[in-house]
What does this fold into?
Amino acid sequence: MALVKPLTQDANAEVAELAKFFNETLGFCPNSVLTMQIRPAIARSFINLNKAVMENHGRVTSELKRLIGYITSANTGCRYCEAHTILAAQRYGGSDGRLKNIWQFRQSDLYTQAEKAAFEFALAASSVPNAVDDSISQAMNEYWDDGEIVEILGVISLFGYLNRWNDSMATTLEGGAIDAGEQYLGHNGWQVSKHQ
It folds into this structure.
């Protein structure tokens, strides 16, 4: 059961306008944002940060950013964010194969070496304590430029916030996210868990 009940989508006009961003990424406004809007300044700041982090600048594609968010969320155990990121990756062109095999990325030829380096970075950066070491940094610098590394770490950090928010709130998962989680992650043991 959710710690705090989300407000309705129309509870704050400014937040509702900003939240239209999620209609593209997910097809709905997430309950996490509807909870944040209890303090509208938090919701506004979060939405603007999300838009900045997820903006596409080139090689770190919209799909890749969502897969990085998935790896980060799976590493921390946030089922809510796992479902959201896999749904958004699908909406941004992720193939069934890439989505269903994301957790087996090390052995898969569905991902480039650059993507694999980003996924290893996501695992290390989202670990507690932080596990980014010289070999992970070296791999990142081999495949990505400074701006791309900033984008990737922006995604990892954004989901660090979201993972703490949604797991602590036990944010209720929306139907579309549940469907995506079951379709693409169920074979790896994903379940709704406390996000009912």
